[in-house]
Amino acid sequence: MLSLWRKIRRTGRVAEPAPPRPAGPPLGAGASAGLAGSVQVRHVDAGSCNGCEVEIGSAFGPVYDADRYGARLVASPRHADALLVTGPVTRNMAEPLRRTYDATPAPRLVVAVGDCARDCGVFAGAYGVAGAVSDVVPVDLEIPGCPPRPEAIVEGLRKMTGR
């Protein structure tokens, strides 16, 4: 057991270098210069199958570590700068999504994560679906994929923070 601890101490912390910065100005620069650098994110599940939630968990986990780029998950929309919305908007979630959007202080960004949030994906035309996220609230950034890879989610968050 001691030999393992010695090896860990000798090796130290090992991390991969960060990928290059996303091209162009930060996404929030047009809305507010104060948004760039650090973004508080509120996740809203509008009716997804939870595939995107697993990938969001990975994006904020220790491997991809979105926190190091200035994006942090918060529990309240009142503390958020951006909404990360997954899934097609169901009839029962249309009004709560609007209320969450209204509760988020301006300037705010909305990110549609996954194909279902972008265009209803495989749920298009279903009886319980009200539409895509852009049909309910204005969307600033779309992240494609079913589900999107954690790298794509982190890249979208980096576009918001400019890091």
From TrEMBL:
InterPro entries, per database record: Complex_I_20kDa-like (IPR052375), NADH_UbQ_OxRdtase-like_20kDa (IPR006137)
Family note: Belongs to the complex I 20 kDa subunit family.
Keywords, comma-separated and alphabetical: 4Fe-4S, Iron, Iron-sulfur, Metal-binding
Domain of life of the source: Bacteria
Pfam families named among the record's database cross-references: Oxidored_q6
UniProt-recorded name of the protein: Ni,Fe-hydrogenase III small subunit
Parts forming coiled coils: none
Organism: Amycolatopsis lexingtonensis
NADH:ubiquinone oxidoreductase-like 20kDa subunit domain sequence ranges: 49-159
Cofactor(s), names only, from the UniProt record: [4Fe-4S] cluster
Disordered: annotated span: 11-30
Statement: the UniProt record of this protein carries the keyword 4Fe-4S: yes
